[in-house]
Amino acid sequence: MRFSTTSLIPLSVVGLAQAAHHQVTVGKGGELKFVPEVVKAQKHDTITYTFFAKNHSVAQSSFDKPCQPIDGAIFSGFVPNDSQDVASRTTFTIVVEDDRPIWLYCSQSTGDHCQKGMVHAINPPETGNTIEAYKEKAKDAPKSTSPHDGLPQVGRREIAVDVGKGGLKFDPDNIIEPVGTYVKFSFSPKNHSVVQSTFDKPCQFQEHGFSSGHIPTKEGTVSPATFNLQIKDSKPIWFYCAQPNGNHCQSGMVGSINAPTEGNTLAAFVNKAKTAPTPSTIDPSAPLGGIILVNGKEVKTFNGNELPAEFREDSNPSTTASATHSMPPAASQTLPAWGSPEVPDYFADKAGGHKPKHWNWADKLSPSASGFLQLHLQIENLITHLLWEAYLKLETVGEWKGVYPQTIVDAIGAWAAQSVLHSATTSTVMDHYEIKPFGGCKWKLPLDDGVVGFLEAWNSLNLVQIGALIDISAQIAKEDPFLVPVLLTQAGAKSRAAGVVNMMRGHLASVSPREIGVPVPLVWSYVLGNYVDSCPEEVKVEGLDKAWPGAKVANVEAGEDGVVTRVEVEYEGSGEHWVAWIGPWGELEYAKVEGGKKVGVPKGWTGDVFVVVVDKEGLGLGELAGHVVAGPEQVWL
Ligand SMILES: *[C@@H]1O[C@H](CO)[C@@H](O)[C@H](O)[C@H]1NC(C)=O
Ligand SMILES: *[C@@H]1O[C@H](CO)[C@@H](O)[C@H](O)[C@H]1NC(C)=O
Ligand SMILES: *[C@@H]1O[C@H](CO)[C@@H](O)[C@H](O)[C@H]1NC(C)=O
């Protein structure tokens, strides 16, 4: 599979825009049924489940083990509801990632829903493993179980809340939902908001809390804008409408998420709000802590805290229907354009913060720094695409679903986001000095062979980028010192990622990666040789435009203690050659290439290191590039 840097950008936007939306009812009319029982869906289609009496769920099993969950696979959580014919405000939406069969069941064990035939399938075969065969198997299945934490996963669980519909109130005002659920607020007239407070200080904006801003809504309509936030933990959350005209909050327009049933209850909060000081307060900027969507598009900033007039009325009412169920977060977010210094809020939130704010700009940037940044940007872009693609495969209903626990999937998503931030930081520097980024290269992403190929690529790219950051920092320290902290904080972030990658690779010293400074020309050669399909003509920096022939390390010889003592280096060429071993802490040692291209390993070296075949020994790191015969190659000792 090949990607250009631009081919990924329309991935979700275009793909999802053309996708079909399917609706499935769960338990409607009091029946233990999914209707329709079978959905035929294509890649990128979405399926939304709506829930009726009694207390159902959507859970994924294998064909062979109905009524039992697959670890890390689709689960909606339970949705209790009394009504047989009014759907719950809570829905669950999944995105279909391919046309393979997906087997689903209701995991309610009280009343044996699954065994009684409450099963469902997406793209089941018409012969062999059919839906009938699955249902038949379910009859004799052991007691149903659900994923142990009971939380929704691999799909978007969402509850719809009305703001100001039929009076000064939130409906529902006492939201009880599991962690991970999205809350979608829709606004009725007049001019309402959803703002977070503490329990103790109702009607007062809580520092670092969320705020939708004021959403003025035309009489007789519902605003096209919705405010969306995700429940991140099980602590109670308190909110209010901050409209001071008419004292909405003090009049009872407050609500809660997961409020206790005793002590600090919602009723106690309503009482407290009655005597809260006026006027209610709101942060001067919005939106905060959540996302405003207008017809499915995000409105990032209001330039103040009032929704701008152009978004208040629905310019295209026919599109609102399809915008009412939003996509799961990962699939609906697109990577910023190539070379963009902008970081979408979604990525900044996921990365744990935005770009640096204080730059200490120097008057000018040295030409060598400029060249280094161009290459750094290319490599970072490659890493972003690798991580983001893998994250989509793991997070949504992709072919890698369930391979890793959710915490690891989340961590990979966070590192993808951080990589976006790192690219944008470099682009900001280039922007400041009016250096136009070269066009983006087309990458070869090793994602077709499962997670192992991904993991190895992530490991080596992470290491070479750390290597490059160290080398660049050392080389520019004199002329462009202001850049050093910017680059080395990136190295720090990548080093933490390297610890996790090592853990996932099952290594002993898992969280103690050691950083290796690899000269930038070698790093770029490595990237060109292994991950580049093609680059625009302009991607040439003097001395940095070469991919040396590859070197492969094979036939490892180890001593009795398992420590590697000799390796065989396969490369084209003959003559008197040495292998330069590049290790952590600036270590550099030489070993002569012997007959059969055997090479000794420096004593005591372990972990990830790099080798490069050179035609001279005793060179310094900075002199290596002038003497490369083959490589570099990464080796695990
Ligand atoms: C719904 O069912 C689940 C699983 O049996 C149970 O844990 C939960 O308490 C039920 N909720 C209600 C409100 O009955
Ligand atoms: C069931 O859904 C209806 C419609 O949204 C809602 O009014 C009702 O409160 C729900 N019942 C439960 C027990 O959640
Ligand atoms: C909405 O309410 C805010 C706060 O009172 C106010 O500043 C703003 O002018 C109102 N907007 C409209 C259109 O009424």
TrEMBL record:
This is Extracellular serine-rich protein. Residues 1-19 form the signal peptide. The keyword Hydrolase does not apply. Residues 308-336 are annotated as: Disordered. It comes from Triangularia setosa. InterPro entries: Cupredoxin, Ser-rich/MCO-related. Keywords: Signal. Residues 316-335 have a biased composition (Polar residues). PANTHER family: EXTRACELLULAR SERINE-RICH PROTEIN (PTHR34883:SF15), SERINE-RICH PROTEIN, PUTATIVE-RELATED-RELATED (PTHR34883).
